[in-house]
Amino acid sequence: MDTDKKNPLKVKKILEANEAVAEVLDFVTLVGILLLSFSLIGLVGYPALRSNQEARYIENTRLSFTVLANNLNKVANGQAPSQSMELKMYGGRLSVRGDSTINITANNSAGQRVTILPTQQMRTIENSIDDNVVAYEGTGVWVKYPNGVILTAYKPLVTNQSNVLVMPVVTITGISSSSGTGLSRITAKGLQSFDFQSNMSNIIVTINSSYIDGWKSFYNGTLSFDWNNCTASQCSAQLNKSNIDVYLIKTIMYTEVN
After folding, report:
1. Which of 24, 117, 167, 170 is the most buried (most CB within 10 A)?
2. Domain boundaries, the chain
3. pLDDT tops 90 at residue 185
4. The whole model's pTM is what?
5. 3-class DSSP state for residue 16?
């Protein structure tokens, strides 16, 4: 007779051993699931978190540059001799840079083609966050994304109403920059001159800029100019009307970032 099969103590030990093995297997399975979950969070969750954080940084910077433009445009309009403002940094680089330019020609009352504004530098104040850039240029604010899309965050102060074209032309000088996190300060001082041309026609504004798509949308949609002779960085906006009075507010804006 097989006494092992009928020994209750033996059977109990076997059952307890099987339960212990099952518990160990359950624990190992649970640990494996946890490790897999953590790995998926690391692979999927962190990039999403970083993307959301970057989007928030860009939006905060856009809002800060809108306030910055309001302040700097007081200098551009002659409302204040200087302005100073702090900007919060999010690990990017804030700098005065660029080689953007603007040129304006027109026909005078005698039908002669004349240069109202010889080619003049504009340049920019830029805050770069990874491959995204928020910039103040030509009294406007532009946001440029890695895919090349450019949005107008703050429209330039150019106006075209009742046959009167008013154009603030700002040249930003200086080469200073700041990077990292924390607060940076931008200080700007302006030196102005004014120019007036009456009874002009067929006005052409030629802009060379890294944000040319934003300028195109502004001149075409807001000012009713037509665009032609466009390249990747330069376009000419044409206002084919007569009897236009042109007011230029030209400002040399010395800018320092620290």
Report:
1. 170
2. 51-257
3. yes
4. 0.81
5. helix
